[in-house]
Design goal:
Blueprint (H helix, E strand, L loop, with lengths): L5 E6 L2 E6 L10 H15 L6 E5 L4 E3 L4 H4 L4 H6 L4 H4 L9 E5 L2 E3 L1 H8 L2 E5 L3 E3 L13 H9 L1 H10 L3 E2 H7 L4 E3 L4 H13 L3 H14 L4 H15 L3 H11 L10
Parallel strand pairs: 2-3, 3-5, 4-6, 5-7, 6-8, 7-10
Antiparallel strand pairs: 1-2, 8-9
The protein binds hexanoyl-coenzyme A (HXC).
The site of hexanoyl-coenzyme A (HXC) has 20 residues, from helix 2 and strand 6.
């Protein structure tokens, strides 16, 4: 499949999607978000893929939603077509693990896109912000909801009310970012992490993702209930039998994703 605004490649069981509008620092317009949704759903249903990476360029993961496009919109345009719901919400439906590999700017919708992924790995030159307030809008792709869950209410208010940028170290300290790498090594390191995940039993990885994401969307008791049921379901898989047998027999497990 060929796209205009993203590049896709596959290395073993890892799919890599690179946002590719370099002239506008990967500003996220409708075409890019449609192509990203389409590529993600293709990899999600491809049984040879176990983990997906979304990345950008060295200078920008994504500098936000496309301001030039949004500048022309009125209330009627955005409300009538439910601007952003249609082509952004698809990302949340992906059931395999998705890693954001962030180098450079992840601003506004770029930061929100990274937060829609299951984890964020950052280069040491990464910069995160929710600067929408300076444009007279609020974050509209989950920033006001995911940021306080990721980094605390105090810090989310600080970022969204001032629009200030934080660097990778502050983002990691706040809990937004899982790990930081020198920018020249980011993709090598993230591909290695993605391979580690892709080599895990796939059904179990999907259950981990479903259970942890549910922690964001429900009560503790509902989340505990789902975790218990998924935990029980693991015992119906061949990979649970294989993983435990391999440990007992002191050999490497050969998972079959079944
Ligand atoms: C459209 C953008 C853009 C964006 C950069 N560009 N960000 N175009 N939408 N979000 C374009 C610039 O207009 C410029 O085009 C080119 O990319 C290079 O950018 P420069 O500003 O010249 O680069 P630099 O001086 O290095 O500054 C980098 C920057 C700055 C700090 C990232 O570009 C910036 O502040 N961008 C806007 C960041 C922002 O406000 N993001 C939030 C958007 S609102 P030309 O043609 O001049 O070369 C949002 C809402 C989400 O995301 C809501 C739900 C989807």
């Amino acid at each position: 499949m060929s796209y205009n605004t993203i590049l896709t490649e596959v290395e073993g069981k890892v799919a890599i999607i690179t946002l590719n509008r370099p002239q506008v620092l990967n500003a996220l317009n409708d075409e890019l978000m449609n192509e990203l949704s389409s590529a993600l759903s293709g990899f999600d249903t491809d049984e040879n893929i176990g983990c997906i990476i979304i990345t950008g360029s060295e200078k920008a993961f994504a500098a936000g939603a496309d301001i030039a496009a949004m500048a022309k919109y009125g209330f009627d345009d955005v409300y009538r077509r439910d601007f952003i719901s249609r082509n952004w919400e698809g990302i949340r439906k992906v059931r395999k693990p998705v890693i954001a590999a962030v180098s450079g700017y992840a601003l506004g919708g770029g930061c929100e896109l990274a937060m829609m992924c299951d984890t964020i790995m950052a280069a040491d030159n990464a910069k995160f912000a929710q600067p929408e307030i300076k444009l007279g809008i609020i974050p509209g792709a989950g920033g006001t909801q995911r940021l306080p869950r990721a980094i605390s209410k105090a810090k989310a208010m600080d970022l969204a009310l001032t629009g200030r940028m934080i660097d990778a170290v502050e983002a990691e300290r706040a809990g937004l970012v899982a790990r930081i790498f020198p920018h020249a090594e980011l993709m090598t390191e993230v591909k290695a992490i993605a391979k580690t995940i892709a080599d895990m039993p796939l059904l179990t990885a999907m259950m981990v993702k479903e259970a942890i994401n549910t922690a964001y969307e429900t009560t503790l008791s509902e989340g505990m209930h789902l975790e218990r049921r998924l935990f029980h379901a693991c015992f119906a898989t061949n990979d649970q039998k294989e993983g435990m047998a391999a440990f007992v027999e002191k050999r490497s497990a050969k998972f079959t994703n079944s």
